[in-house]
């Protein structure tokens, strides 16, 4: 049988370049899809931030011009196979040789170029996809441009599009002039049924309107974004088009996150040697200058220090949390206000709180392995990876019931002996504090706690199930049904 052919388009992919969770998904999902026999290839910009040793392995394939408004811009395509996945890199130094990835005055032009280049590349690479799978606003206009400029060409006539929303908050909103001046689209697209958004144009809205299927990164988030509270002014559109919207939960990379083989943690362990986990705790306590105590529950937190991550809830009841017999270890950077408060608290409670205001992937892994509990009190969380990583490492999550946190963490019920963590519903600091106290209470019941840890580690949080759901969706859209 002919293989499904997917061109997976993303603005960032780990380990080449990363600013957030999109890069992790764009690295892990294509690998999982190839394992089940789908010919998926990834296309992304060739940013200057990509390490030189990786750039040196790329092979130049071809070059061509890409129409952007009245101009034709140079585009080179380079190829690299990495961990069994073929990658195409879009080269244009004017657009992508910059200090950062996003936030430039000409982002509308830069990402217009990227979307056109993705489509133009199909004429020049030896790969004709059945589906182009686009991600977030940066590649959302592929679906619009495909319909407007390429459908007449037999090479493109049968291509379907899938658009995944990783975070609805960032939409790619630009002035009306981008529509005709750069995208070469007529004014018929400047209406609320197409791209118009409060006097501007909205790339993400284009992706939602014109793609054949829209997915987001958890079933709960797919429901939440259809409400005014989470819909970021697109909830009406998403309710209207909910027949083509579904939630498919992200997974985590089981090769990258495996306590049995992880070289970055202090002591390796598995579900069959859970007793070794405590050695990680003692070594982390020593490294961070906390009192070395086996019996004290360590609550870990690896997070961006931002309002959406629930840091204000934490600060509101931090004195009460630290009055408990616990140690709290925080790793992350973010808003200066939160950073300074956490630094101040760590000076006030040197034996209780270690605030590490930095990003360090190795320390993050050590915290996942060494902690007993992992706190994620997010205001909203489309999917969340931290709770899945912590479950994989036998560290029980304490989460707010939103987005992917709601889909992956089942609250512990001591009467039915069900659940794999602890959760609270309302975005309220005292509800969170009550849930932390409840988790600490069960920590003292070693028999119940060890059973919970074992259950957490035995759960499947890999990409395997998600990859099968994407395969089912792809087949529904194509002739391979």
UniProtKB/TrEMBL annotation:
Protein name, as recorded: Glycogen synthase
Record GO biological process: glycogen biosynthetic process
NCBIfam families named among the record's database cross-references: glgA (TIGR02095), PRK00654.1-1 (NF001898), PRK00654.1-2 (NF001899)
Name of the gene this protein is made from: glgA
Reactions accelerated catalytically: [(1->4)-alpha-D-glucosyl](n) + ADP-alpha-D-glucose = [(1->4)-alpha-D-glucosyl](n+1) + ADP + H(+)
Span of domain Starch synthase catalytic: 5-240
Residues the entry annotates as binding ADP-alpha-D-glucose: 18
Residue span, Glycosyl transferase family domain: 292-449
Annotated pathway: Glycan biosynthesis; glycogen biosynthesis
Function noted in UniProt: Synthesizes alpha-1,4-glucan chains using ADP-glucose.
GO molecular function: alpha-1,4-glucan glucosyltransferase (ADP-glucose donor) activity; alpha-1,4-glucan glucosyltransferase (UDP-glucose donor) activity
Enzyme class: transferase
Family, as annotated: Belongs to the glycosyltransferase 1 family. Bacterial/plant glycogen synthase subfamily.
Species of the source: Thermohalobacter berrensis
Pfam families in UniProt: Glyco_transf_5, Glycos_transf_1
EC id: 2.4.1.21
Keywords: Glycogen biosynthesis, Glycosyltransferase, Transferase
